[in-house]
Specification:
Blueprint (H helix, E strand, L loop, with lengths): L5 E5 L5 E8 L3 H4 L5 E7 L9 H9 L3 E7 L5 E7 L11 H10 L5 E5 L2 H12 L19 H18 L7 E7 L11 H22 L7
Antiparallel strand pairs: 1-2, 2-7, 3-6, 3-7, 4-5
Helix pairs in contact: 2-5, 4-5
């Protein structure tokens, strides 16, 4: 089942790209223990398209900025700026709506791991937990590829679904980019894992800056 969700893009000019696109329900049985990068997304499910508008409205309201402003007379102001949005209208064409979310996906979260199977299975387990910690806004202060980071992501997603009034999380899916150059995690030495993690951290930092995921590292 490992190859069921493999996507290969061949531009016929010597460029070939390979990654996996795995639905929520198949993640545990479809992921291997290679190092790599992963990103979480959401899509409307057939006959459940009405769910996506409240979820997206809730997600968009998660985006906020921390501001520090200097004024006259040496006065300074700091706090959070929150996004305000007009009420969203559900599109009439459900099929186009679903295709849009797969053609132009919006990343919820971008992460890395030296063992993708362990990390993503931890995400799955914690997304199913109901007794979660409160939402954490300072995710950038948390060590990446850690159980604590997974808990923060799961808590934020759970809060969004709860606020939107949606319980089923099978509208989530993951894109996975495996880094197979040196083998699976269990085949790597501690020094090699540290080296690979540093390479992945560089890519993760760039990815969060470029693609601005909803729950990204700021």
């Amino acid at each position: 089942m490992m190859d069921d969700f493999k996507k290969i893009i061949d531009f016929t000019s010597g460029e070939k790209y390979e990654h996996q696109v795995i639905p929520f329900d198949a993640l545990e049985s479809s992921i291997d223990s290679f190092p790599g990068l992963y990103s979480w997304y959401i899509r409307p499910k057939p006959n459940r398209e009405a769910e996506v508008i409240p979820i997206m409205e809730t997600l968009l309201h998660q985006s906020r900025l921390r501001a520090h402003v200097k004024g006259n007379m040496r006065l300074e102001y700091e706090g959070y700026l929150e996004k305000t949005l007009p009420k969203q209208v559900r599109p009439y064409n459900d099929e186009l709506l679903r295709r849009l979310f797969m053609t132009v996906p919006m990343p919820l979260y971008i992460g890395i791991s030296v063992d993708l199977k362990t990390r993503l299975c931890t995400h799955l387990r914690q997304l199913e937990e109901t007794d979660m910690i409160n939402e954490i806004n300072e995710i950038g202060k948390v060590e990446n590829d850690s159980d604590l980071e997974s808990r923060f992501f799961a808590a934020r997603i759970n809060n969004v679904f709860k606020e939107a009034g949606v319980s089923a999380k099978d509208c989530l899916y993951v894109r996975v980019l495996e880094y197979k150059k040196y083998g699976k995690s269990e085949e790597l030495t501690k020094d090699k894992k540290r080296e690979i993690k540093k390479e992945l951290e560089d890519i993760e930092y760039l990815a969060n800056s470029l693609f601005n995921p909803v729950f990204g590292r700021r």
